[in-house]
Write a structure and sequence with these properties.
This protein has helices at 3-11, 18-23, 49-64, 85-95, 124-136, 147-159, 178-186, 235-245, 261-271, 307-313, 317-328, 332-338, 363-375, 379-393, 395-403, 405-416, 430-435, 437-440, 455-468, 475-486, 495-500, 509-521, 529-536, 538-548; strands at residues 36-39, 68-71, 102-103, 140-143, 192-195, 204-209, 213-218, 225-227, 250-254, 277-281, 285-287, 294-296, 417-418, 421-422, 491-492, 507-508. With 549 residues, the protein is mainly alpha-helical. It has four domains: 3-15 and 124-281, HUPs (Rossmann fold, 3-Layer(aba) Sandwich); 298-375, Glutamyl-trna Synthetase, Domain 2 (Glutamyl-tRNA Synthetase, domain 2, Orthogonal Bundle), CATH 1.10.1160.10; 379-440, no CATH class; 455-548, Arc Repressor Mutant, subunit A. The structure holds glutamic acid (GLU). Glutamic acid binds at residues 40-42, 74, 239, 253. Residues 40-42, 74, 239, 253 line the site of glutamic acid.
Length: 549
Protein backbone atom coordinates (compact mmCIF):
# COMPACT_ATOMS: atom_id res chain seq x y z
CA UNK A 1 0.00 0.00 0.00
CA UNK A 2 1.11 3.54 -0.63
CA UNK A 3 1.39 4.83 2.90
CA UNK A 4 1.78 8.42 1.74
CA UNK A 5 -1.58 8.21 0.04
CA UNK A 6 -3.08 6.79 3.22
CA UNK A 7 -1.57 9.62 5.25
CA UNK A 8 -3.22 12.14 2.91
CA UNK A 9 -6.51 10.31 3.11
CA UNK A 10 -6.47 10.42 6.91
CA UNK A 11 -4.80 13.77 7.48
CA UNK A 12 -5.62 15.79 4.35
CA UNK A 13 -6.38 18.76 6.56
CA UNK A 14 -2.86 18.90 8.00
CA UNK A 15 -0.88 21.41 5.99
CA UNK A 16 2.21 21.52 8.12
CA UNK A 17 4.67 18.70 8.68
CA UNK A 18 6.73 17.28 11.48
CA UNK A 19 9.99 18.93 10.38
CA UNK A 20 8.49 22.42 10.23
CA UNK A 21 7.06 21.91 13.68
CA UNK A 22 10.42 20.74 15.02
CA UNK A 23 11.97 23.96 13.74
CA UNK A 24 9.56 25.94 15.91
CA UNK A 25 11.06 24.26 18.98
CA UNK A 26 14.79 24.89 18.85
CA UNK A 27 17.14 23.38 21.39
CA UNK A 28 17.10 25.49 24.53
CA UNK A 29 20.14 27.59 25.19
CA UNK A 30 20.95 26.56 28.72
CA UNK A 31 24.02 25.50 30.66
CA UNK A 32 25.34 21.99 30.18
CA UNK A 33 23.93 20.69 33.46
CA UNK A 34 20.68 22.63 33.30
CA UNK A 35 17.58 20.52 33.79
CA UNK A 36 14.25 21.22 32.18
CA UNK A 37 11.39 19.76 34.17
CA UNK A 38 7.67 20.13 34.10
CA UNK A 39 4.52 19.71 36.08
CA UNK A 40 1.78 18.36 33.87
CA UNK A 41 -1.51 17.86 35.64
CA UNK A 42 -4.94 17.21 34.23
CA UNK A 43 -7.20 20.16 35.03
CA UNK A 44 -9.40 18.28 37.48
CA UNK A 45 -9.50 21.22 39.87
CA UNK A 46 -8.14 19.04 42.66
CA UNK A 47 -4.59 19.38 43.88
CA UNK A 48 -3.43 16.22 45.63
CA UNK A 49 -0.57 16.51 48.11
CA UNK A 50 1.27 14.01 45.86
CA UNK A 51 0.97 16.53 43.02
CA UNK A 52 2.49 19.24 45.17
CA UNK A 53 5.24 16.79 46.15
CA UNK A 54 6.07 16.08 42.50
CA UNK A 55 5.89 19.77 41.61
CA UNK A 56 8.18 20.70 44.48
CA UNK A 57 10.77 18.12 43.48
CA UNK A 58 10.57 19.02 39.79
CA UNK A 59 10.91 22.71 40.48
CA UNK A 60 13.86 22.11 42.79
CA UNK A 61 15.68 20.00 40.20
CA UNK A 62 15.24 22.71 37.56
CA UNK A 63 16.07 25.67 39.78
CA UNK A 64 19.17 24.24 41.43
CA UNK A 65 20.65 23.45 38.01
CA UNK A 66 19.87 26.83 36.44
CA UNK A 67 17.24 25.21 34.24
CA UNK A 68 13.58 25.71 33.47
CA UNK A 69 10.44 24.50 35.20
CA UNK A 70 7.23 24.77 33.21
CA UNK A 71 3.53 23.98 33.51
CA UNK A 72 1.77 21.91 30.88
CA UNK A 73 -1.93 21.26 31.17
CA UNK A 74 -2.90 17.76 30.07
CA UNK A 75 -6.48 18.42 29.12
CA UNK A 76 -6.97 15.63 26.63
CA UNK A 77 -9.55 13.85 28.72
CA UNK A 78 -12.59 16.07 28.65
CA UNK A 79 -14.47 13.79 31.05
CA UNK A 80 -12.04 14.56 33.90
CA UNK A 81 -11.89 18.27 33.29
CA UNK A 82 -13.76 20.70 35.54
CA UNK A 83 -14.44 24.37 34.99
CA UNK A 84 -11.56 26.55 36.18
CA UNK A 85 -9.59 23.41 37.02
CA UNK A 86 -6.42 25.00 35.68
CA UNK A 87 -6.91 28.17 37.75
CA UNK A 88 -7.34 26.08 40.86
CA UNK A 89 -4.09 24.21 40.19
CA UNK A 90 -2.13 27.37 39.48
CA UNK A 91 -3.49 29.18 42.52
CA UNK A 92 -2.98 26.26 44.91
CA UNK A 93 0.60 25.83 43.77
CA UNK A 94 1.20 29.57 44.08
CA UNK A 95 -0.02 29.35 47.69
CA UNK A 96 2.79 26.88 48.27
CA UNK A 97 5.35 29.17 46.72
CA UNK A 98 5.61 27.19 43.49
CA UNK A 99 6.01 29.30 40.41
CA UNK A 100 6.74 28.38 36.83
CA UNK A 101 9.28 29.86 34.46
CA UNK A 102 6.96 29.25 31.56
CA UNK A 103 3.73 27.54 30.75
CA UNK A 104 -0.02 27.69 30.89
CA UNK A 105 -1.66 30.52 32.83
CA UNK A 106 -5.04 30.97 34.41
CA UNK A 107 -8.04 30.68 32.09
CA UNK A 108 -8.31 33.60 29.74
CA UNK A 109 -4.80 34.84 30.43
CA UNK A 110 -1.87 34.80 28.04
CA UNK A 111 0.49 31.89 28.55
CA UNK A 112 4.20 32.66 28.65
CA UNK A 113 7.25 30.98 27.17
CA UNK A 114 8.45 30.01 23.69
CA UNK A 115 7.70 26.30 23.79
CA UNK A 116 3.90 26.36 23.84
CA UNK A 117 1.08 26.07 23.42
CA UNK A 118 1.20 24.62 26.94
CA UNK A 119 -2.32 23.26 26.95
CA UNK A 120 -2.57 20.01 25.08
CA UNK A 121 -6.03 20.92 23.77
CA UNK A 122 -4.35 23.68 21.74
CA UNK A 123 -1.78 21.30 20.22
CA UNK A 124 -4.07 19.18 18.08
CA UNK A 125 -2.37 20.03 14.81
CA UNK A 126 1.04 19.09 16.23
CA UNK A 127 -0.04 15.61 17.31
CA UNK A 128 -1.83 15.04 14.03
CA UNK A 129 1.17 16.14 11.98
CA UNK A 130 3.41 13.73 13.88
CA UNK A 131 0.88 10.92 13.51
CA UNK A 132 0.59 11.71 9.80
CA UNK A 133 4.30 11.21 9.43
CA UNK A 134 4.14 7.85 11.19
CA UNK A 135 1.31 6.73 8.91
CA UNK A 136 3.32 7.86 5.87
CA UNK A 137 6.18 5.69 7.07
CA UNK A 138 3.91 2.69 7.61
CA UNK A 139 4.33 2.90 11.39
CA UNK A 140 0.74 3.77 12.23
CA UNK A 141 -2.64 2.89 10.80
CA UNK A 142 -6.35 3.51 11.34
CA UNK A 143 -8.35 1.01 13.37
CA UNK A 144 -12.11 0.77 13.02
CA UNK A 145 -12.79 -1.80 15.71
CA UNK A 146 -15.80 -0.98 17.82
CA UNK A 147 -15.88 -0.95 21.61
CA UNK A 148 -17.82 -4.25 21.53
CA UNK A 149 -15.23 -5.93 19.31
CA UNK A 150 -12.43 -4.79 21.58
CA UNK A 151 -14.32 -6.06 24.60
CA UNK A 152 -14.71 -9.48 22.96
CA UNK A 153 -10.97 -9.56 22.28
CA UNK A 154 -10.25 -8.62 25.86
CA UNK A 155 -12.46 -11.42 27.17
CA UNK A 156 -10.92 -13.98 24.81
CA UNK A 157 -7.42 -12.97 25.91
CA UNK A 158 -8.41 -13.02 29.54
CA UNK A 159 -9.90 -16.52 29.34
CA UNK A 160 -6.72 -17.81 27.70
CA UNK A 161 -4.53 -15.86 30.14
CA UNK A 162 -2.90 -13.99 27.28
CA UNK A 163 -1.37 -10.53 27.29
CA UNK A 164 -4.25 -8.09 26.84
CA UNK A 165 -4.09 -5.66 23.96
CA UNK A 166 -4.16 -5.13 20.24
CA UNK A 167 -1.45 -7.29 18.67
CA UNK A 168 -0.84 -10.35 16.50
CA UNK A 169 -4.01 -12.11 15.39
CA UNK A 170 -6.08 -9.69 17.54
CA UNK A 171 -4.92 -6.67 15.55
CA UNK A 172 -7.69 -7.02 13.01
CA UNK A 173 -7.22 -3.68 11.28
CA UNK A 174 -3.46 -4.02 10.86
CA UNK A 175 -3.82 -5.56 7.44
CA UNK A 176 -6.62 -3.49 5.94
CA UNK A 177 -6.01 -2.40 2.36
CA UNK A 178 -6.18 1.20 1.20
CA UNK A 179 -9.48 0.45 -0.53
CA UNK A 180 -11.00 -1.10 2.58
CA UNK A 181 -9.96 1.87 4.65
CA UNK A 182 -11.26 4.34 2.09
CA UNK A 183 -14.59 2.51 1.97
CA UNK A 184 -14.99 2.47 5.76
CA UNK A 185 -14.27 6.18 5.93
CA UNK A 186 -16.83 6.81 3.20
CA UNK A 187 -19.32 4.77 5.24
CA UNK A 188 -18.74 7.14 8.13
CA UNK A 189 -17.05 4.55 10.39
CA UNK A 190 -15.19 6.02 13.35
CA UNK A 191 -11.52 5.16 13.76
CA UNK A 192 -8.54 5.63 15.98
CA UNK A 193 -4.90 5.77 14.89
CA UNK A 194 -2.75 2.97 16.23
CA UNK A 195 0.98 2.43 16.32
CA UNK A 196 2.19 -0.47 14.20
CA UNK A 197 4.39 -1.83 16.93
CA UNK A 198 7.72 -3.20 15.73
CA UNK A 199 8.15 -4.96 19.13
CA UNK A 200 9.30 -8.60 19.36
CA UNK A 201 7.63 -10.94 21.77
CA UNK A 202 10.65 -12.05 23.75
CA UNK A 203 12.72 -8.89 23.46
CA UNK A 204 13.60 -6.87 26.53
CA UNK A 205 14.25 -3.21 27.07
CA UNK A 206 15.78 -1.42 30.04
CA UNK A 207 14.26 1.52 31.82
CA UNK A 208 17.13 3.53 33.30
CA UNK A 209 15.28 5.14 36.12
CA UNK A 210 17.24 7.72 38.11
CA UNK A 211 15.67 6.64 41.40
CA UNK A 212 15.29 2.90 40.88
CA UNK A 213 18.27 2.15 38.69
CA UNK A 214 17.91 -0.16 35.70
CA UNK A 215 14.64 -2.02 35.35
CA UNK A 216 14.44 -4.70 32.69
CA UNK A 217 11.03 -4.94 31.04
CA UNK A 218 9.49 -6.74 28.07
CA UNK A 219 9.40 -4.69 24.92
CA UNK A 220 6.00 -3.34 23.91
CA UNK A 221 4.29 -5.45 21.26
CA UNK A 222 0.83 -3.90 21.32
CA UNK A 223 -0.50 -1.53 18.72
CA UNK A 224 -1.43 1.15 21.22
CA UNK A 225 -3.77 3.98 20.34
CA UNK A 226 -2.00 7.23 19.45
CA UNK A 227 -4.99 9.36 18.49
CA UNK A 228 -8.48 8.70 19.75
CA UNK A 229 -11.49 8.81 17.42
CA UNK A 230 -11.93 12.54 18.07
CA UNK A 231 -8.32 13.10 16.96
CA UNK A 232 -7.15 13.79 20.52
CA UNK A 233 -3.94 12.02 21.53
CA UNK A 234 -3.62 9.48 24.30
CA UNK A 235 -1.41 10.32 27.30
CA UNK A 236 1.34 8.13 25.81
CA UNK A 237 1.56 9.92 22.50
CA UNK A 238 1.16 13.42 23.89
CA UNK A 239 3.83 12.73 26.50
CA UNK A 240 6.36 11.68 23.87
CA UNK A 241 5.76 14.59 21.52
CA UNK A 242 5.38 17.29 24.15
CA UNK A 243 8.28 16.33 26.35
CA UNK A 244 10.48 16.13 23.27
CA UNK A 245 9.41 19.43 21.72
CA UNK A 246 9.37 21.32 25.01
CA UNK A 247 12.87 20.13 25.74
CA UNK A 248 12.20 18.26 29.01
CA UNK A 249 15.46 16.73 30.19
CA UNK A 250 14.05 14.73 33.11
CA UNK A 251 10.49 13.50 33.39
CA UNK A 252 9.59 13.33 37.07
CA UNK A 253 6.28 11.55 37.51
CA UNK A 254 4.43 9.06 39.70
CA UNK A 255 5.63 5.47 39.66
CA UNK A 256 2.24 4.30 38.38
CA UNK A 257 3.66 5.19 34.96
CA UNK A 258 6.54 2.71 35.09
CA UNK A 259 4.42 -0.03 33.56
CA UNK A 260 3.76 2.21 30.53
CA UNK A 261 7.44 2.90 30.04
CA UNK A 262 7.92 0.24 27.30
CA UNK A 263 5.25 2.01 25.24
CA UNK A 264 6.97 5.36 25.68
CA UNK A 265 10.35 3.88 24.92
CA UNK A 266 9.04 2.49 21.65
CA UNK A 267 7.16 5.64 20.69
CA UNK A 268 10.31 7.73 21.08
CA UNK A 269 12.21 5.19 19.04
CA UNK A 270 9.80 4.92 16.10
CA UNK A 271 9.37 8.69 16.07
CA UNK A 272 13.14 9.17 15.95
CA UNK A 273 13.08 11.41 19.02
CA UNK A 274 15.63 11.45 21.82
CA UNK A 275 14.23 10.23 25.10
CA UNK A 276 14.42 12.32 28.25
CA UNK A 277 15.66 10.81 31.52
CA UNK A 278 13.06 9.46 33.91
CA UNK A 279 12.60 9.58 37.65
CA UNK A 280 9.54 7.70 38.85
CA UNK A 281 8.69 8.84 42.33
CA UNK A 282 6.94 6.70 44.94
CA UNK A 283 3.57 7.93 46.16
CA UNK A 284 2.85 9.25 49.65
CA UNK A 285 1.23 6.49 51.67
CA UNK A 286 -0.88 6.14 54.78
CA UNK A 287 -1.30 3.32 57.26
CA UNK A 288 -4.78 1.92 57.13
CA UNK A 289 -5.77 -0.64 59.72
CA UNK A 290 -2.73 -2.48 61.00
CA UNK A 291 1.00 -1.94 60.91
CA UNK A 292 1.70 -3.18 57.43
CA UNK A 293 -1.42 -2.05 55.63
CA UNK A 294 -0.14 0.83 53.56
CA UNK A 295 -2.21 2.53 50.93
CA UNK A 296 -1.94 5.70 48.87
CA UNK A 297 -3.40 8.87 50.37
CA UNK A 298 -6.85 8.91 48.85
CA UNK A 299 -8.77 11.87 47.50
CA UNK A 300 -12.01 10.21 48.58
CA UNK A 301 -11.08 9.06 52.06
CA UNK A 302 -8.41 11.42 53.41
CA UNK A 303 -8.98 15.15 53.83
CA UNK A 304 -5.22 15.59 54.17
CA UNK A 305 -4.78 14.31 50.61
CA UNK A 306 -5.86 17.71 49.29
CA UNK A 307 -3.48 20.65 49.50
CA UNK A 308 -6.50 22.82 50.39
CA UNK A 309 -6.58 21.07 53.74
CA UNK A 310 -3.22 22.60 54.67
CA UNK A 311 -4.28 26.07 53.62
CA UNK A 312 -7.51 25.81 55.56
CA UNK A 313 -5.79 24.56 58.69
CA UNK A 314 -3.33 27.40 58.39
CA UNK A 315 -0.08 25.55 57.89
CA UNK A 316 2.42 28.05 56.55
CA UNK A 317 3.42 26.78 53.12
CA UNK A 318 7.05 26.66 54.21
CA UNK A 319 6.11 24.00 56.78
CA UNK A 320 4.42 21.77 54.25
CA UNK A 321 7.27 22.13 51.78
CA UNK A 322 9.82 21.55 54.49
CA UNK A 323 7.98 18.40 55.59
CA UNK A 324 7.72 17.15 52.00
CA UNK A 325 11.46 17.62 51.67
CA UNK A 326 12.02 15.43 54.72
CA UNK A 327 10.03 12.69 52.99
CA UNK A 328 11.74 13.25 49.66
CA UNK A 329 15.32 13.29 50.83
CA UNK A 330 16.88 11.43 53.74
CA UNK A 331 19.71 13.97 53.90
CA UNK A 332 17.42 16.95 54.38
CA UNK A 333 16.92 16.82 58.14
CA UNK A 334 20.64 16.60 58.82
CA UNK A 335 21.20 19.58 56.54
CA UNK A 336 18.46 21.53 58.32
CA UNK A 337 20.06 20.84 61.72
CA UNK A 338 23.31 22.27 60.45
CA UNK A 339 21.62 25.17 58.66
CA UNK A 340 18.63 26.15 60.78
CA UNK A 341 18.11 29.50 59.13
CA UNK A 342 18.94 28.69 55.53
CA UNK A 343 16.33 28.93 52.82
CA UNK A 344 15.15 25.56 51.55
CA UNK A 345 16.36 26.57 48.08
CA UNK A 346 19.94 26.25 49.31
CA UNK A 347 19.56 22.53 49.90
CA UNK A 348 21.09 20.49 47.08
CA UNK A 349 18.55 17.81 46.26
CA UNK A 350 19.51 14.56 44.56
CA UNK A 351 16.93 12.43 42.77
CA UNK A 352 19.07 9.32 42.95
CA UNK A 353 18.93 9.44 46.74
CA UNK A 354 15.14 9.24 46.84
CA UNK A 355 13.52 6.22 48.41
CA UNK A 356 11.88 3.73 46.07
CA UNK A 357 9.16 2.76 48.49
CA UNK A 358 6.30 5.10 49.31
CA UNK A 359 6.95 7.28 52.36
CA UNK A 360 4.33 7.26 55.06
CA UNK A 361 2.52 10.49 55.64
CA UNK A 362 3.07 11.40 59.28
CA UNK A 363 0.88 14.19 60.63
CA UNK A 364 2.76 14.36 63.94
CA UNK A 365 5.98 14.88 62.08
CA UNK A 366 4.42 17.62 59.95
CA UNK A 367 3.16 19.33 63.11
CA UNK A 368 6.58 19.16 64.69
CA UNK A 369 8.32 20.44 61.55
CA UNK A 370 5.79 23.24 61.41
CA UNK A 371 6.36 24.25 65.05
CA UNK A 372 10.03 24.63 64.20
CA UNK A 373 9.30 26.61 61.05
CA UNK A 374 6.92 28.92 62.92
CA UNK A 375 9.37 29.38 65.79
CA UNK A 376 11.89 30.75 63.27
CA UNK A 377 9.49 33.36 61.88
CA UNK A 378 9.76 36.99 62.88
CA UNK A 379 6.88 38.64 64.72
CA UNK A 380 6.19 40.82 61.67
CA UNK A 381 5.93 37.81 59.41
CA UNK A 382 3.69 35.97 61.87
CA UNK A 383 1.43 38.98 62.13
CA UNK A 384 1.15 39.29 58.36
CA UNK A 385 0.57 35.59 57.68
CA UNK A 386 -1.98 35.15 60.46
CA UNK A 387 -3.87 38.27 59.40
CA UNK A 388 -4.05 37.00 55.82
CA UNK A 389 -5.12 33.52 56.89
CA UNK A 390 -7.74 34.72 59.37
CA UNK A 391 -9.29 37.01 56.76
CA UNK A 392 -10.05 33.91 54.71
CA UNK A 393 -10.66 31.17 57.23
CA UNK A 394 -11.34 32.47 60.75
CA UNK A 395 -13.83 35.35 61.09
CA UNK A 396 -13.56 35.52 64.91
CA UNK A 397 -9.80 35.89 64.84
CA UNK A 398 -9.99 38.25 61.92
CA UNK A 399 -12.33 40.62 63.72
CA UNK A 400 -10.13 40.47 66.82
CA UNK A 401 -7.15 41.46 64.70
CA UNK A 402 -8.92 44.34 63.01
CA UNK A 403 -10.40 45.66 66.26
CA UNK A 404 -7.27 45.33 68.37
CA UNK A 405 -4.23 45.32 66.12
CA UNK A 406 -1.80 46.41 68.87
CA UNK A 407 -3.03 43.83 71.32
CA UNK A 408 -2.82 41.22 68.62
CA UNK A 409 0.82 42.02 67.97
CA UNK A 410 1.51 41.89 71.69
CA UNK A 411 -0.24 38.54 71.91
CA UNK A 412 2.20 37.15 69.34
CA UNK A 413 5.05 37.98 71.70
CA UNK A 414 3.13 36.32 74.50
CA UNK A 415 2.90 32.90 72.83
CA UNK A 416 6.13 33.16 70.88
CA UNK A 417 8.42 33.63 73.86
CA UNK A 418 8.86 32.17 77.28
CA UNK A 419 11.15 34.72 78.87
CA UNK A 420 14.08 34.76 76.47
CA UNK A 421 13.33 31.30 75.08
CA UNK A 422 11.28 30.74 71.95
CA UNK A 423 8.22 28.59 72.57
CA UNK A 424 7.22 25.95 70.03
CA UNK A 425 3.52 25.59 70.72
CA UNK A 426 1.87 26.72 67.53
CA UNK A 427 1.97 24.40 64.52
CA UNK A 428 -0.73 25.99 62.39
CA UNK A 429 -2.84 29.14 62.54
CA UNK A 430 -6.01 27.25 63.50
CA UNK A 431 -4.19 26.35 66.73
CA UNK A 432 -4.43 29.98 67.78
CA UNK A 433 -8.14 30.10 68.50
CA UNK A 434 -8.04 26.52 69.80
CA UNK A 435 -5.13 27.07 72.19
CA UNK A 436 -5.60 30.75 72.98
CA UNK A 437 -9.36 31.08 72.71
CA UNK A 438 -9.22 33.11 75.95
CA UNK A 439 -7.27 35.78 74.08
CA UNK A 440 -8.98 35.81 70.71
CA UNK A 441 -12.49 34.49 71.24
CA UNK A 442 -13.75 35.20 74.77
CA UNK A 443 -14.30 33.84 78.27
CA UNK A 444 -13.73 30.12 78.82
CA UNK A 445 -16.71 27.81 78.61
CA UNK A 446 -15.12 25.10 80.73
CA UNK A 447 -12.76 25.20 83.67
CA UNK A 448 -10.06 22.70 84.38
CA UNK A 449 -9.60 23.54 88.07
CA UNK A 450 -7.24 21.42 90.12
CA UNK A 451 -9.52 19.46 92.45
CA UNK A 452 -6.82 19.42 95.13
CA UNK A 453 -8.13 22.83 96.29
CA UNK A 454 -11.70 22.63 97.69
CA UNK A 455 -14.23 24.68 95.70
CA UNK A 456 -15.16 26.91 98.64
CA UNK A 457 -11.49 27.81 99.25
CA UNK A 458 -11.12 28.56 95.58
CA UNK A 459 -14.12 30.92 95.54
CA UNK A 460 -12.97 32.59 98.69
CA UNK A 461 -9.60 33.28 97.15
CA UNK A 462 -11.04 34.55 93.88
CA UNK A 463 -13.36 36.95 95.72
CA UNK A 464 -10.52 38.28 97.83
CA UNK A 465 -8.36 38.71 94.76
CA UNK A 466 -11.08 40.63 92.88
CA UNK A 467 -11.28 43.05 95.79
CA UNK A 468 -7.54 43.66 95.69
CA UNK A 469 -6.85 43.42 91.95
CA UNK A 470 -5.05 46.42 90.50
CA UNK A 471 -4.60 46.54 86.71
CA UNK A 472 -1.76 49.04 87.06
CA UNK A 473 0.52 46.52 88.79
CA UNK A 474 3.72 45.62 87.01
CA UNK A 475 4.67 42.00 86.77
CA UNK A 476 6.40 41.72 90.15
CA UNK A 477 3.74 43.77 91.95
CA UNK A 478 1.18 41.49 90.40
CA UNK A 479 2.91 38.41 91.82
CA UNK A 480 3.34 40.00 95.26
CA UNK A 481 -0.34 40.78 95.33
CA UNK A 482 -1.27 37.15 94.61
CA UNK A 483 0.94 36.14 97.52
CA UNK A 484 -0.50 38.79 99.81
CA UNK A 485 -4.10 37.89 99.03
CA UNK A 486 -3.45 34.17 99.28
CA UNK A 487 -1.47 34.01 102.50
CA UNK A 488 -4.27 34.72 105.01
CA UNK A 489 -6.48 32.22 103.16
CA UNK A 490 -3.96 29.39 103.56
CA UNK A 491 -1.88 29.68 100.35
CA UNK A 492 1.77 29.57 101.42
CA UNK A 493 3.74 32.34 99.65
CA UNK A 494 6.97 30.35 99.81
CA UNK A 495 7.12 27.15 97.77
CA UNK A 496 9.97 25.64 99.79
CA UNK A 497 8.14 26.16 103.07
CA UNK A 498 5.00 24.75 101.54
CA UNK A 499 6.80 21.64 100.33
CA UNK A 500 8.32 21.09 103.76
CA UNK A 501 4.87 20.76 105.33
CA UNK A 502 2.06 20.78 102.75
CA UNK A 503 -0.61 19.58 105.19
CA UNK A 504 -0.32 22.85 107.05
CA UNK A 505 -1.71 24.79 104.07
CA UNK A 506 -4.60 24.88 101.59
CA UNK A 507 -1.98 25.18 98.87
CA UNK A 508 0.95 27.29 97.72
CA UNK A 509 1.23 30.53 95.76
CA UNK A 510 1.59 28.32 92.67
CA UNK A 511 -1.88 26.92 93.42
CA UNK A 512 -3.20 30.43 93.91
CA UNK A 513 -1.83 31.45 90.50
CA UNK A 514 -3.27 28.23 89.10
CA UNK A 515 -6.76 29.18 90.30
CA UNK A 516 -6.49 32.59 88.62
CA UNK A 517 -5.11 31.00 85.48
CA UNK A 518 -8.01 28.57 85.13
CA UNK A 519 -10.54 31.28 86.03
CA UNK A 520 -9.25 33.53 83.27
CA UNK A 521 -8.21 31.01 80.59
CA UNK A 522 -10.06 27.80 81.50
CA UNK A 523 -6.74 25.95 81.22
CA UNK A 524 -4.04 24.84 83.66
CA UNK A 525 -1.25 25.78 81.26
CA UNK A 526 -0.85 29.09 79.55
CA UNK A 527 1.83 31.63 78.74
CA UNK A 528 2.41 34.42 81.24
CA UNK A 529 -0.83 35.06 83.14
CA UNK A 530 0.04 38.62 84.08
CA UNK A 531 0.33 39.52 80.39
CA UNK A 532 -2.86 37.66 79.55
CA UNK A 533 -4.78 39.73 82.13
CA UNK A 534 -3.29 42.91 80.72
CA UNK A 535 -4.21 41.92 77.18
CA UNK A 536 -7.80 41.07 77.94
CA UNK A 537 -8.14 44.23 80.07
CA UNK A 538 -9.32 45.06 83.58
CA UNK A 539 -13.09 44.79 83.06
CA UNK A 540 -12.90 41.49 81.23
CA UNK A 541 -10.51 40.07 83.83
CA UNK A 542 -12.89 40.96 86.65
CA UNK A 543 -15.88 39.59 84.70
CA UNK A 544 -14.12 36.32 84.15
CA UNK A 545 -13.01 36.04 87.77
CA UNK A 546 -16.56 36.68 88.94
CA UNK A 547 -17.95 34.13 86.52
CA UNK A 548 -15.51 31.45 87.67
CA UNK A 549 -16.08 31.89 91.43
N1 LIG B 1 -1.21 14.18 33.37
C1 LIG B 1 -0.53 13.09 34.00
C2 LIG B 1 -1.21 12.82 35.32
O1 LIG B 1 -1.94 13.68 35.79
C3 LIG B 1 0.91 13.48 34.22
C4 LIG B 1 1.88 12.37 34.28
C5 LIG B 1 3.25 12.93 33.91
O2 LIG B 1 3.77 13.74 34.68
O3 LIG B 1 3.75 12.57 32.85
O4 LIG B 1 -1.03 11.79 35.90
Amino acid sequence: MDNRLLAELLFGDIMTDRDSIMERYPKRELGEKAEVTRFSPSPTGYMHIGGLYAALISSKIARQSGGVFYLRIEDTDKKREVEHGTDEIISSLAEFGIKFDEGASADGEQEYGDYGPYRQSARGEIYRAFAKELVARGLAYPCFCTAEELEQTRKAQESQKLLPGYYGEYAKCRGLTYEQIEQKIKDGCEYVIRLRSPGKEDAKIVCRDIIRGNIEMPENITDVVLLKSDGIPTYHYAHVIDDYLMGTTTVIRGDEWISSYPIHHQLFEVSGLKMPRYAHIAPIMKLDGGENRKRKLSKRKDPEASVRYYSEQGFPYESVNEYLMTIASSGFEGWRMKNPDADISEYKFKLDKMSISGALFDMDKLLSVSRDVISRMSEEKLSRLITEWAAEYDPALSSYISNSADKFNESIKLWKYNGTKVRKDVAKWSDLTAMYDYLYVGAPKEYDFDTKIPADKRSEFISAYIAEYDPLDDSSQWFDRVKRVGEPLGFCPNIKEYKADPDKYVGSVADACGILRVAVTGKRNSPDLYTIMRLIGCDETINRLNKAK
